[in-house]
Amino acid sequence: MHGKRFFSYMTAAATHYRHAHLVVCDTLDVHNMAPSPDLRAEALETARAMGDRWLRKHFRQLHDAFEGRVTLTRWDDVKADPTFQPRYEAACALYERSEAVRAWVDDVCGMYARLAAQRQIGSGFVPDLDRLFRRSLAYMLEEIAGTAVYHGWYQSPAVYPGPYFDDPYLFNREQPGIDLSVPAQCAVIFADDSAKAA
């Protein structure tokens, strides 16, 4: 997703952190492929293959920037954690019950749906905003649960360029009992093709 700038922001992060935990959200991206149920298995394999290609292209840069101090996790590993499903169910219930959570999630999903629509229009397609929003929502609810899982593993800030969870404890305040806290964000600020980790 951010391949063109990957090396610059990982190099910047390496000046602040001794170790990197790379989470490759390959099979999470199946929601963006919008397969019909009978094509889901094929879409998952495509997503895994795309993750493999991304790693072949970029993992060496991360490995070198952190002098080998890198942990690699794929999204299937995140979903295999026994705490994933309870967290996912809690995130879905929270979206239905909490106005604050629903407003935040809808705002982010709406933004992604509008960006996807712009790309589709640019390619000559007529976008279905409702369908794009539903795809983004499915992605986001799974991402909330998975992000809470790996935050539980690593307890470290996230380096991510772009919109992120701006309130790491929003979900926990609304859902006591199941830990849905997410990492604080180490902001990435771009100036031309270089990056600074704040």
Descriptive account of the structure:
The chain is mainly alpha-helical. It has a single domain (3-197), classed as Cyclodipeptide synthase (Rossmann fold), CATH 3.40.50. It is 59% helix and 11% strand. It has eight helices and six strands. The chain has helices at residues 3-14, 30-33, 40-65, 75-80, 84-97, 99-122, 129-154, 170-174; strands at 20-24, 70-74, 158-159, 185-186, 188-191, 194-197. It has a two-stranded parallel ribbon. Strands 3-4 form a two-stranded parallel sheet. Strand 3 (158-159), helix 8 (170-174) and strand 4 (185-186) form a beta-alpha-beta unit. Helix 1 (3-14) packs across helix 3. The longest helix has 26 residues, at 40-65. The protein is globular, with a radius of gyration of 17 Å.
Please specify the SSE layout and strand pairing.
Layout: H1 3-14, E1 20-24, H2 30-33, H3 40-65, E2 70-74, H4 75-80, H5 84-97, H6 99-122, H7 129-154, E3 158-159, H8 170-174, E4 185-186, E5 188-191, E6 194-197
Parallel strand pairs: 1-2, 3-4
Antiparallel strand pairs: 5-6
| Helical fraction | 55-70%
State the CATH superfamily name. Answer: Cyclodipeptide synthase
> Using DSSP, what is the number of strands?
6
What is the residue-averaged pLDDT?
A: 86
User: Might you state the CATH topology name?
Assistant: Rossmann fold
CATH class membership: Alpha Beta
Domain count: 1
Q: What Rg is obtained from the alpha carbons, in whole angstroms?
A: 17 Å
Question: What topology, given as strand order, has the largest sheet?
Answer: 1-2
Structural class: mainly alpha
Under the CATH scheme, which architecture would be assigned? 3-Layer(aba) Sandwich
Strand proportion: 5-15%
